Amino acid sequence: MDLPESLRAAFEPEFLPTGKFNRNSGSTAAEGKFYAQQPARMIAPTHLREENQVSDAYKQAGVDIAAGNEAVERMKKHVKTTFRPEVLTELGGFGGLFGLNKDKYEEPVLVSGTDGVGTKLKLAFAMDKHDTIGIDAVAMCVNDIIVQGAEPLFFLDYLACDKVIPEKIEAIVKGISDGCVQAGCALIGGETAEMPGMYSEGEYDIAGFTVGIVDKKKIIDGSTIRPGDVVLGLPSSGIHSNGFSLVRRLLLEQKGYKLDQALEALEGKKLGDVLIEPTRIYVKTILSLLEKVQIKGMAHITGGGFLENIPRVLPKNVNAHIQYGSWPILPIFHLMQQDGSISNNDMFRTFNMGIGMVIVVSAEEAEATLAAARELGESIYRLGEITTGEGIVTFEGAEV
Q: Is it the case that residue 17 has pLDDT exceeding 80?
């Protein structure tokens, strides 16, 4: 809608072409309205404030309210699958409400985490595959809080894009919902911001936030780790969500591999399928183990790899001594290292190398932990032991 020249100066400076729809969950459906961010002051005749005309003007500015409403309708059924009985929010509320059952805890402590997916998003754009990237967003948050023994309660997401395409938004939120189901937490709210001019065509960014709970006396912080304890590892599903700037530069730009190319080094799998494999969510496995054994410390192996993440949970007077070769390193890491001539040190400082979660238990509980994990159908590996040291990771069997 073209505005009269006399109104343009008054109208445009305050008009922010940003569409925002808040998705605060309810007890029966995950519904939110598409709230267009209106001008703070719009000096215009009454007829310009009629809904259809304002929507037309907003659409010309790059924000499609109708598309936003359609996206919300499409995502309802997915978000509903994540609900827990504690979700109290009415539909369309300003905030998500979640009731706490304090009877389960003597001294409940809330634990929070927030993260994004990084440049793994570039693969989703290139492959036009958007239904798993949300799993990564959830995983990066909930895996961070489970290491302290906290059960994730709820999750919120922020999705910003250049243009709302309802089926694409639905696919992304479906992935977020799938991740929440895997983690057992409720998706109680979110926001999708349509911001023309902020992102390249077809691109978006996603971030997540989670809150969990743990009894204060059951917080896992690594403080009881001692020499003689055993280091165990749960396998990763692939690269997870870190190191993709290096991955893209080496494999796609320098080596010239194509995402739809099947590689013998990857056991005949297509490169894109291997790279975009979602991050594993370890929540339910860890919660089950905690019912049977006492875990002294855990490390989520993300950016920084073994060398920077394991020390975050170690006391300053011990080392984690890792036996190289005690677990299978995934083919994608061998491909990266061989094609890029990357040192062991750089690989273990950048990637998870096939282990996404490290667990430390006493020597007395090691076998029970291994058995409990295997009863759950989990692969688990004995990586090494805790030795006297200075709070670092050391290796045997390879120079790292």
A: no
Check which CATH number belongs to the domain holding 286 and give it.
Answer: 3.90.650.10
Closest CA to 77 of 23, 123, 126: 23
In the structure, what pLDDT confidence band is assigned to residue 71 with cuts at 50, 70 and 90? confident
Residue 305, token pair as written in the block: 């790899």
Task: Lay out the sheet containing 381-388: strands in order across.
Answer: 297-300, 355-361, 230-235, 381-388, 318-323, 393-396
Burial class for 13, CB neighbours closer than 10 Å (0-12, 13-18, 19+): exposed
Give the total number of structural domains in the chain: 2
What domain range is 62 assigned to? 5-218
Q: Please tell me the predicted confidence (pLDDT) of residue 32.
A: 35
CA 360 – CA 30 distance, rounded (Å): 39
pLDDT at 86: 96
Q: How deeply is 131 buried, as exposed, middle or buried, from its count of CB atoms within 10 A (0-12, 13-18, 19+)?
A: middle
- Residue 50 pLDDT more than 90? no
What pLDDT is attached to residue 103? 86
Tell whether 201 and 60 lie within a shared domain: yes
SS3 232: strand
> How many angstroms separate the most distant Cα atoms in the chain?
81
- 39: exposed, middle or buried (Cβ count in 10 Å: 0-12, 13-18, 19+): middle
Rounded to whole angstroms, the Cα distance separating 364 from 310 reads 21
Q: Which residues of 309-321 are buried (b: 16+ CB within 10 A; e: fewer)?
A: bbbebbbeebbbb
Handedness of CA 352, 353, 359, 361 (dihedral sign): negative
Establish if 224 belongs to a structural domain. Answer: no
In terms of domains, do 28 and 62 share one?
yes
Percent of the chain scoring above 70 in pLDDT: 84
Same domain, 246 and 356: yes
For the segment 46-53, the average pLDDT, to the nearest whole number, is: 43
- Identify the pLDDT of residue 26: 38
**Buried/exposed 192-201: b ≥16 CB within 10 Å, e otherwise:** bbbbbeebee
Q: Residue count of the chain, please give it.
A: 400
Q: What is the pTM of this model?
A: 0.87
Say yes or no: 93 and 127 in one domain: yes
Domain annotation covers residue 320: yes
Residue 120 lies in a domain: yes
Position 54 confidence tier, pLDDT thresholds 50, 70, 90: low
Q: Which CATH number fits the domain that encloses residue 25?
A: 3.30.1330.10
